[in-house]
Write a structure and sequence with these properties.
Radius of gyration: 18 Å
Shape: globular
Number of strands: 21
Strand order of the largest sheet: 2-3-9-4-5
CATH class of the largest domain: Alpha Beta
CATH superfamily of the largest domain: lpxc deacetylase, domain 2
Bound molecules: zinc ion
């Protein structure tokens, strides 16, 4: 059956780029409503479904916009936590154009959702079962691929010149236990040189060593190091889980990703939905 949350949950923080205060209030929603975002700081702002078709920007994060163009950016970490918690219906009211970055990962969201708990609803849960291989590649040959499989699993591969990251591979069926231990704590990562540039153009004002891994050549600048050994690739998995949930339904299939990001994930879903024979919608 479908599930929503048992009660309202509030998250307060700052936006990663703006550094401005941002509050999300998650509220239970009726069966078949889906995951809905709404800007409550703008009078009369329309609710927007967290669907791939409503994604308007994939540079550095996944950003939704309503029909008037009001943006809600960085939805992916919350979306990943909702998908793993098997929450089908929820309303997320946001007070700013950016979601609060919180821990830079999904551990805060996931833990709060787990504590609040979920409630069974009166409609059956539906899944999107992948029937054919669908692939999206960019002009550098980096690609994402969805293939038929009995369970939802992810293979992710990254390769960075620095040895501290190097070649990292994630390959597993996604379970709540694995997500809690290995994926939810994994933060966004970047190079120190990127930070200097992003700051110079007025971005990442809310970024810190608490919510991002910062690499300087072969050194990690965070005093406590990585949270899990493969934190970098696992954060890419976290992003991919959140992005795949913008399909609107949980997937049954295998996702393979090679050095890709939000843009590729969004293009993959567009390719998937472009042909109805690629998938079928099944009930639990
Ligand atoms: Zn991310």
């Amino acid at each position: 059956m479908q599930h929503t949350i048992t009660r309202q949950i509030v998250f307060e923080g700052v936006g990663l780029h703006s550094g401005a205060p941002s509050v999300i209030t998650l509220k239970p929603a009726a069966a078949d409503e889906g995951i809905i975002f709404r800007r409550v700081d703008i009078a009369g702002a329309e609710p927007v479904k967290a669907l791939y078709a409503n994604v308007v920007d994939t540079r550095n994060c996944t950003c939704l916009a309503d029909t008037s163009g009001n943006k809600i950016s960085t939805i992916e970490h919350l979306m990943a936590a909702l998908s793993v918690m098997k929450i089908d219906n929820v309303v997320a009211e946001v007070t700013a154009p950016e979601m609060p970055i919180m821990d830079g990962a999904a551990a805060t969201f996931f833990e709060a959702l787990r504590q609040a708990g979920t409630v069974k609803q009166s409609a059956p849960r539906r899944y999107l079962k992948i029937l054919k291989s669908v692939r999206f590649a960019d002009d550098k040959g980096n690609y994402v691929l969805l293939e038929p499989a009995d369970k939802f699993s992810v293979y992710f591969e990254i390769e960075f010149p620095s040895k501290i990251v190097g070649h990292q591979v994630f390959d597993a069926v996604i379970t709540p236990e694995l997500f809690a231990e290995e994926i939810a704590p994994c933060r966004t990562f970047c190079e120190k040189t990127q930070i200097d540039y992003l700051r110079s153009i007025g971005l990442i004002k809310g970024g810190s060593l608490d919510n991002a891994v910062v690499l300087d050549g072969e050194t990690i600048l965070n005093p406590t190091g990585f949270k899990v050994p493969k934190e970098c690739v696992n954060h890419k998995v976290l992003d991919a889980l959140g992005d795949m949930y913008t399909a609107g339904l949980p997937l049954i299939g295998r996702l393979t990703a090679h050095k890709t990001g939000h843009y590729h994930n969004n293009q993959l879903l567009k390719a998937l939905f472009a042909d109805k024979t690629n998938y079928e919608i099944i009930e639990e």
